[in-house]
Amino acid sequence: EGPFRGKYPFLPIVLNDVVAGGPVDDLARDVALEAHLENAALPFLRARKFLALLAWLLIPGTFLLARRFFSSGWSLFAAATMGLCPLLLCYSVQARPHALVAVAGVAAMLACMRLVRNPGWGTQLLAGLATGACMSCMHTGLAALAPYVLAALIAARKFGRVSLLRSLVVLVLIAVTSV
Prior knowledge:
Blueprint: H1 10-20, H2 33-55, H3 58-67, H4 72-83, H5 86-93, H6 98-117, H7 121-137, H8 145-159, H9 161-178
């Protein structure tokens, strides 16, 4: 049941069930049709609002990611571009997970960049969680696995085998939770 079943991986379905829930009230049979329709629409409206609000995280995330490579002006331009992206604007209010995968992808990239500098357990788990979330939002989120593997290899080269072992443990956790 629901808008995502059979179309997307499990994370949008779980978020939809947690945020949207079911109809608010059990209405009596003699209530007007409009009241029943409003009651039935509440879970979808909750999911749409939640995903639209979550999509706003893409703007500061894009700014932070762009700031690693560009000046403040160009980073602001990149963030504004993501904030005005017609595809994400349209799909986020329709409760589709495209904005969700974009937010998770930006979070995964930021976490992977941090992983290269500091490959501790906390950073490894953060990067693994963001990568797994990206993969669990939509099939195109699988692309987030490549930066994680690359960051893990760079960290292993810089910090030794312990970092590589941590990365392998986190990769196993990603595989288990994303399937």
